[in-house]
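Allow me, if you will, to draw on your knowledge of protein folds for a short while. I have a record of one protein: its chain in single-letter code and its fold written as discrete structure tokens. I remain grateful for any guidance, and I place the record below:
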Amino acid sequence: MTDSRPVVTRFAPSPTGYLHIGGARTALFNWLYARGRGGKFLLRIEDTDRARSTPEATEAILQGLEWLGLDWDGTPVSQFEGRARHAEVAREMLANGSAYKCFSTAEEIESFREKAKAEGRSTLFLSPWRDADPASLPDAPHVIRLKAPRTGETVVHDAVQGAVTFRNDQLDDMVLLRSDGTPTYMLAVVVDDHDMGVTHVIRGDDHLTNAARQIQIYQAMGWEIPVFAHIPLIHGEDGKKLSKRHGAVGLHEFAAMGYPAAAMRNYLARLGWSHGDDELFDDAQAREWFDLAGIGKAPARLDFKKLEHVSGWYIARMDDAELMAEIAAYRTATGAAQLDDAQSARLAAVLPALKAKAKTLPALLEQAHFALISRPVAVEEKAAAALDTVSRGILKELTAAVQHASWGRDALEAAAKAIAESHGLGLGKVAAPIRAALAGRSSTPSVFDMMMALGRDETLARLQDQAG
């Protein structure tokens, strides 16, 4: 289970669609393990399925990793481009006796399986060419198969699952090279991991059976076997395997819902891994703490309430510049136009007053609506009810009172209170028309926070627009 080599992990997605949340977590675990040990985190695009692999999907995966903040070392490797190397290894195995040429046709294999099924025997195909004399082989189309051991056991010493044993008589002589000369996925993965120097293969536990078959290739070539760590899959809140019926499953969907990337890293790290009772932590702590021993064997459950809690914790603690960058990324993810300089300045001014209450970025922007709109402010029907003749007169008085006053929160609040008292009103009654004038809404942040964010000139202009 130990490996003295410098740590090298990899993330190897297939570019057949968006980056799934489960794939994003796998990438994160590999990134954390490598970065926490001064190792390398490599990226391989497993694009051998030419019918389904697309450049657009590859780009979506790269963008997803970049948004999540996972940097990789070197240039992403294309598995398809390594097909000549994969075929070369298959021929090496042929030469060392750990593989053989099989000339059985698809019809012959199907006939074998039907007969075995009828006789109540294992339908695992036993090729008649396994021990054929090489000198007597025909010059005909063939595949190259692994000459897998027929007896004994193959044990996967897994850092998460423990020792998992597979009977060799349940593992077939899998095809390594197809009759058209193209390598199979199973061969390509092993060759790539070996050539890339991967020391730790951290991936979903749906690959656990693959590990047993891949170990046989490592052994046939006399290569060092990496540390395997097969992590449980992510389930929905109902305990069933995560799928589109649960709502968001693509990383891009979470970005578009307005969860900051830093919060997603924290939340995904805790999906199936734990460090004592720590729920909330920063990147430095995650890199220092993350280890394979902390990964549980049971499937993790996606919990949107917990994700919102983590998201709110991060938004409240982010410095304003980082939060502005997250907002820009969110607007990109949703296709919204970026804020102009005036909007950005007003938003930055109000962030300290708003970010402690927001769970997501759209919730934060909703609170900051007043800072993003331009004059003349459109007043919603409910807010307009606060703009009667008396209220408009109060707005005129307030405009005159603060026009030359010191522009500070205390001074503005004192001016508003004085006007309220002069009319025998509570501050709330005076605040309602101010909200309508500044934001066009009846529910807003503190009117004094809005005035400070908008600044003297913009505040006075909006008050005068509604004062008439």
Observations:
- The two ends are 78 Å apart (CA to CA).
- The longest helix spans residues 447-467.
- Residues 28 and 70 are 7 Å apart (CA to CA).
